Structure to design on (154 residues):
């Protein structure tokens, strides 16, 4: 059975435990809750699922390094990206996902990422070029992302 970890819960992984970080569009109201679909699809695997979609996100938080709640969220995400066995990244077409683009730049050279960037994403061409440059697998839809992630974690 999969274990689900979300901020602010510390990321604790057992030695050798496989894990997947769910990077991608979150923009509240614009991105469907795709992470929940991935969680359900991976529930039977012995993996840790690192989902940065915080249940009690407060939109009034100042986005500043001086705000402990905000900084803690960003550091949790950076830790998850670094520690995960695999990064599953989804660019929802109706979003701009600037943080996900940043995370793509951080993760692509490390070789442990699968990207889903459906047609219609506003910077799909940029994502295609980055994926091609670093040999990152890029799939067209969420169901293909889930199949690819399952294959990599099984």
């Amino acid at each position: 059975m999969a274990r689900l970890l979300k901020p602010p819960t510390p990321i604790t992984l057992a030695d050798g435990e496989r894990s997947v970080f769910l990077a991608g569009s979150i923009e509240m109201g614009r991105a469907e809750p795709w992470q929940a679909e991935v969680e359900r699809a991976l529930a039977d695997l012995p993996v840790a699922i690192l989902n940065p979609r915080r249940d009690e996100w407060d939109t009034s938080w100042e986005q500043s390094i001086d705000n402990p709640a905000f900084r803690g969220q960003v550091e949790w995400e950076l830790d998850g990206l670094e520690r995960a066995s695999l990064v599953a990244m989804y660019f929802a077409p109706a979003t701009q996902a600037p943080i996900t683009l940043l995370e793509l730049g951080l993760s692509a050279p490390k070789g442990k990422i699968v990207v889903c960037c459906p047609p219609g994403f506003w910077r799909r061409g940029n994502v295609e070029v980055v994926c091609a440059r670093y040999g990152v697998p890029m799939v067209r839809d969420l169901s293909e992302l889930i199949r690819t992630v399952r294959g990599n974690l099984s």
Remarks:
- The chain has one domain: 3-56+64-153.
- The longest strand covers residues 18-24.
